[in-house]
């Protein structure tokens, strides 16, 4: 049976690539592993943050859209992105760090049997840290070494992705019948109920938590919102197999898409959420040395001839830590 190996990446929207870079590297301690452009609209940056090795399952990416407005939060949205930390103790470190850097955050709270800490980035992106203290399942990555963040407390992977939807039955059918997710329980938090779905080995790196909300307006995306979530497979052949399965169930999809750093297919769930399926390889070191990932502007081969024009339309971006 076809199975995903976990979450691959989450892609969101920012108004300012430089502000975004400063927060996700200098405050959260991610490594910028690829500075490139939106392949479908190369006038805008596409930044990839990840663990120290740029591992699938640890990636948070952002499209820069300078003219974008603020998100109007609501239903039919990928409403929270979470990141994994090794222990409950790590959450206390991060709470103190958020206070030091004036990051908006809530108290440490238990959700689905794990300790969690909700917070917001400067553009009000809805984020959460999740403790792996008692977690089993998909392994995390290798933390990027940052001087003021102990490795034992560092972020090292994506945690559960949260969907807020009006038609929960339709999302349930897509996840379980078509995409082979398993129901893994329910829980109450934040005054509402959530259903947990898992794939592959399970655990926090392989979960989607769905909140059913018909009382909210449909979210209007902007800066601080998630554009799509990607589910992880090992090979290009897996992408082909999933295309066949989606066609079998009549799920409209993009067909095979070569993103150079990985291979993909895109679909929408019945509530309009964009879901990508992405392969592990070939990876971010395909076009630059591993020790300098993200420092120069990388372009896929089909855009390389337009490098001069693309660079002229982008604002310079300081990508070395501390600049």
UniProtKB/TrEMBL annotation:
Keywords: Dioxygenase, Oxidoreductase. It holds the Pfam family Glyoxalase. The keyword tRNA processing does not apply. PROSITE patterns: VOC. The keyword Oxidoreductase applies. Residues 6-132, 157-280 form the VOC domain. One of its GO terms (molecular function) is dioxygenase activity. InterPro entries: Extradiol_RC_dioxygenase, Glyas_Bleomycin-R_OHBP_Dase, Glyas_Fos-R_dOase_dom, VOC_core. This is Ring-cleaving dioxygenase. It comes from Savagea serpentis.
